[in-house]
Design goal:
The complex is a heterodimer of chains A (305) and B (359). Chain A is an alpha/beta fold. Chain A contains 6 helices and 15 strands. In chain A, strands 10-9-8-7-11-12-15 form a 7-stranded mixed beta sheet, sandwiched between helices. A 6-stranded antiparallel beta sheet of chain A has the order 4-3-6-1-2-5. The N and C termini of chain B lie far apart (68 Å). The chains are: A alpha/beta (305), B alpha+beta (359). At the A-B interface, strand 4 of A face helix 1, strand 4, strand 5, helix 3 and strand 11 of B.
Chain lengths: 305, 359
């Protein structure tokens, strides 16, 4: 019989109290299972243009589907087992509890793999993660949504929210700039938004193609078309990195208070939980403290834009 | 905390007993460097004699027992289109012998980072809970600057900590496990004389530091000097190899990679330690790199170590062990970079013209 006096007993963290229950990603205490994804089935794929597709997902397990709730502006980690996981902002309405829509550009190796998937394929999601747009705070104000290119995807969720609660807002303007007319996302919904929901939509393209009737120029040119009342306006900006600096400083000069100007930032992410540090901006994490920041945080964090 | 004194011969018996019954790791000499000095690493040990108790410091830190270079996060087993995701949070008990105060401090900082916040890491927790830490104090190396970072003494994060007071070890016992083990050995309560010898020892350690880095108000200096040419200067030297982050006891940034097994029936998600100095650290899909230049990445590393965490937890991540400085192939060390940054600051102050004379 060997002497066992000095053997250190093994501690099993799986047996400790903070286990069980369905994971809630936005609360502490659920230390376990944050790495476990919700399994989803791809129910529909809409090809928006050559590069971008809209994937409609449905969480398979009904219990998980009931727990999955998000706020406009949050993102999720989309997992393709064997390929990897990528952060994707949610572009569907948060009152739609049955389906989740993700607007995805074919850019990296995970999204390239995803583009080979068809309807009925299985993927998994983790999340939702991150901060959201303060939709309740915006109540009673004019709203200015400014998007560049794929930056329209994260703004579609707040736009849905505005559509569903249209009477709570004053004027709503959407300024949307893209490189070429074929890159306009969700153009099939423009008419619905304008006619039914009374949202003023302004689009502009950098390089006009034959048959393009609309405007031609940079996104800042659209500011000449609208009159902004800086005292009563909330602005939300999302686009490529170069766009933020120009648009935000313009809005700042107009006099929109810093705490009423929001940006949604993009960074490389690997965990979504503030651990891998890949998305760190200054001292904050884009995944936990962001991706939605107000303009004060953005200029306070040195390398944000 | 309970304090005891144990003679060195009795301590050998204690170490032998613990090492014999558990998977243990301690400092062992592995090689000599180009100046003929010994290189030590934490390696498996089976008896007291294998442990180099008089070691200076190890080349790699003890973090790799908690954050291995590669760690499997989960495994996917495929069934047709569907799959099972398997995650295990398990670790076998290990004993770490001879950790220096800065190494233990580093573990405390990792605890803060990885176990606080909204998403505590169960992988880390399992390993941390199953580790028995025996700490040892030491006389600093000429380039250690732990004292400047206030990590040359330690009050928590270990099971038992040994201070060398001549013929005996002065033990600080911080866990019931360690206390129960030590019951089996001949220890005594510290006498006045022992306490005096401990104070002497601490004074000696404290006075032996040759390197000093002034870190007062460093977070704000890092902010003010964000555009400083110092970053470009040091960045141009940097080789982007990422060695500094690998040997650092507190660097924890990682990347997640997934790969299929060759039979295509399963896949694994693996976490790999990464370095913020590697070129693609902040590169997003589509090719935009948020930190394109060497200097940007070097700056970010110092920013994260000395500023980022200070804002969140009022603590700097760096413990002052200078492993990165010793390991750097380009000869960049934190002491020089920080001092350079401070000089930059001070020379600015000198250049401010004096107020005009009164007429």
């Amino acid at each position: 019989m060997p002497d066992k006096r000095f053997v250190i007993p093994r501690q099993d963290i799986n047996r400790e109290n903070f286990t069980s229950s369905i994971p809630d990603f936005n609360r502490r205490s659920d230390i376990m299972k944050t790495d476990m994804g919700y399994k989803c089935i791809i129910t529909n794929i809409v090809s928006l243009n050559e590069q971008e597709k809209l994937f409609q997902l449905r969480i398979i397990d009904s219990g998980e589907r009931d727990t999955f709730r998000f706020k406009p502006g949050q993102f999720l980690m989309l997992e393709l087992p064997g390929y990897g996981d990528v952060p994707i902002s949610i572009s569907s309405s948060n009152s739609n509890h049955e389906f989740i829509e993700l607007c995805i550009r074919k850019a990296g190796h995970v999204t390239s793999a995803l583009f080979t998937f068809g309807e009925g394929a299985y993927v998994a999601i983790r999340g939702p993660f991150g901060s959201s747009f303060p939709m309740d705070e915006m109540t009673g104000y004019n709203v200015l949504l400014i998007a560049g290119g794929l930056g329209f995807a994260p703004l579609r969720a707040p736009l849905f929210w505005i559509n569903e609660h249209r009477d709570r807002f004053l004027d709503v303007h959407v300024l949307y700039g893209v490189k070429t007319p074929s890159q306009l996302l969700f153009s099939y919904q423009f008419e619905e938004w304008e006619k039914i929901n009374h949202i003023t939509l302004h689009t502009i393209v950098e390089k006009a193609e034959a048959g393009w009737q609309g405007k031609h120029g940079m996104i800042t040119d659209l500011f000449n078309d609208i009159s902004i009342d800086p005292e009563n306006t909330y602005a939300v900006v999302c686009g490529p990195p170069v766009m933020f600096k120009v648009v935000c400083s313009y809005l700042d000069r107009l006099g929109i208070p810093m705490n009423r100007m929001f940006v949604s930032l993009e960074r490389r992410m690997h965990c979504g939980m503030g651990k891998c540090c890949r998305c760190m901006v200054g001292s904050t994490f884009t995944c936990v403290d962001g991706p939605v920041f107000d303009y004060w945080s953005v200029i306070n964090l040195k390398e944000a834009i | 905390m309970i304090y005891k004194v144990i003679s060195k011969s009795e301590f050998k018996k204690f170490t032998d007993a613990v090492v014999h019954d558990n998977t243990s790791f301690g400092p062992r000499q592995v090689d000599f460097d180009n100046r003929g000095k010994s290189i030590y690493q934490f390696l498996p040990v089976t008896s007291f004699y294998e442990i180099a108790f008089d070691y200076t410091t190890t080349a790699s830190s003890a973090k790799h027992f908690f954050l291995p270079f590669r760690e499997e996060l989960s495994r996917f087993v495929f069934r047709d289109q569907d799959w099972d995701q398997q995650i295990t949070y398990e670790a076998n008990p290990i004993v770490l012998i001879g950790l220096r105060p800065c190494d233990i401090s580093a573990l405390n900082i990792l605890d803060d980072v990885l176990l606080n916040g909204n998403f505590p890491s169960p992988y880390y927790l399992a390993k941390r809970k199953n580790t028995f830490v025996i700490g040892m104090d030491h006389l600093p190396l000429p380039d250690c600057f732990c004292k400047s970072m206030n990590h040359h003494t330690i009050a928590t994060g270990f099971n038992v900590f040994c201070s060398d007071i001549g013929h005996d070890y002065y033990l600080s016992i911080n866990s019931s496990k360690a206390f129960n083990f030590l019951k089996e050995f001949d220890t005594r309560d510290p006498l006045d004389d022992d306490n005096c010898r401990l104070v002497e020892r601490r004074k000696l350690i404290s006075n032996s530091f040759l390197s000093e880095v002034d870190v007062t108000s460093l977070p704000s200096i890092l902010d003010i000097e964000f555009e400083s040419p110092v970053w470009e200067k040091w960045g141009n030297k940097c080789l982007n190899c990422g060695t500094c982050a690998m040997v650092c006891p507190t660097c924890y940034c990682y990347s997640v990679n997934e790969s299929f097994e060759t039979d295509l029936k399963s896949a694994t998600r693996q976490k790999r330690l990464y370095s913020c100095n590697l070129v693609d650290f902040a590169e997003v899909a589509g090719g935009h790199n948020f930190r394109p230049k060497n200097g940007d990445r070097l700056k970010y590393r110092y920013y994260h170590q000395h500023r980022g965490f200070a804002e969140n937890a009022n603590k700097q991540i760096c413990v002052g062990c200078n492993r990165c400085g010793r390991a750097c192939l380009a000869g960049i060390n934190p002491k020089d970079v920080i001092n350079d940054l401070r000089m930059e600051k001070e020379s600015c102050l000198i250049n401010v013209s004096s107020s005009p004379d009164k007429t």
